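Collaborator request log, item 7. Partner lab (contact: R.S.) asked for a structural prediction of GDSL esterase/lipase to inform their binding assays.
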Amino acid sequence: MAFHFRRLCCFQALFVVVLHLLYRVSGQLVVVEEPSLAPPPPLVDLDGGDSIVPALFVFGDSLIDNGNNNNIPSFAKANYFPYGIDFNGGPTGRFCNGLTMVDGIAQLLGMPLIPAYSEAAGDQVLRGVNYASAAAGILPDTGGNFVGRIPFDEQIHNFETTLDQVSSKSGGAVAIADSVARSLYFIGMGSNDYLNNYLMPNFPTRNQYNSQQFGDLLVQHYTNQLTRLYNLGGRKFVVAGLGRMGCIPSILAQGNDGKCSEEVNQLVLPFNTNVKTMISNLNQNLPDAKFIYLDIAHMYEDIIANPAYGFTTMDKGCCGIGKNRGQITCLPFETPCPNRDQYLFWDAFHPTEKVNLIMAKKAFAGDRTVAFPINIQQLASLN
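Returned to partner:
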C-alpha cells in the first residue's frame, strides 16, 4: 500500500481546524465540564494495602492519558462525549469508550484506578499517579501541531514533584525509598514521535533522518529518560513497544486498497528493535533494575488472528468521520457504533476498551512472546 505522507498532515490539520471552529462556536462542545468522580479511598501509608505493589506510576501519550490535557490549551483532548460512553462517570479525558490498558493493569494489581497528575491530591498520590499526555512524545517538539501537551521530559519532572510532596509528608526521601523502588513504572511512548513528528511534512525530521537513524535518535533520548527515572529511585519498569501503526484507521484511510501500510509498519521496526536492545543493556548496567518489554505488535497480531475474541470490524473506528471512520477522529456528540465490543478501534487512533483489557491481561500474565523477559505479575512479585 502506497502511503502519502502529505495526506496525513492534511487530515490531522483538518481535524484541528474543525475542533477550533467548534470551540469558537461553543466552548462547551470541546471542553465539556468533567463529571465529578468519587476519589479512591484515602491512604495513610505506603504499603500498597492489598495490591501487589505499593504504587503504579504511568508515563505516556493518548493511549493511556486519563485527563492530563483537560485543562491545558490543547487540541488533543477527549473530555467530551462520546468518549467515556462506557466509563462509569462519563468522559474523563481517556481517549477511549471506557478503560485504558493501564486501567486494566491497575485492576489486575489489586489497585484503584490511578488518578491523573492534574487531579491527584492528598493521599491519592500514594497509590500512584498517571502523568501521560495526549500528543506527547519522547522528543520535546513532538505533537506541536496540537499546541499543548506534556512531553516525556516534563512528565518525569512532574514525577519529581510528586516525590517531593510524598517525601515531605513521610519523613524524607530515605523513608520512602523502599516503596519507590518496589513500585511499578509503566512507560508507553513513541507513537507520536512518528505520527505527529516524523510523518508530518511541517517537521524537518523526515528530511534529516532515515528510519534507522530516527529510531536510533529516539532510543538515545529514551535511554537517558529511563535512566533518569532509575536515578529517582525506580527499579521495576514496564516499557511498551509500538503496535502495528500502519493498520490504524487514520493510516488505512490514506490508501486505496484497504490494506495496512507496510511502509509505516516497517518505519517503526527500528524503534522496537532498539528498545529491546536498550532494555537488555539497562538490565545489565543499572544495579537492581528490572526492565521488561511489552510486544504490543505481537498482541495486536494475536487478537486479529483469533476469532474467539469476537472482533468483526478491524479496519474502521467505532467513532469517526470519513473513509474507515478515520479521516477525522471522534467529534463532540457524534453517535458512535452500538456494537463497540466487536470493534478493534474506538476512533482513528485508539483501541476500544475491550482491546485494552485483553492487552492488559496479556501484559500481566502472558508468556515471553508478549512480555519479555518476564510479565508484569512476575515483575511486581520480585523482591
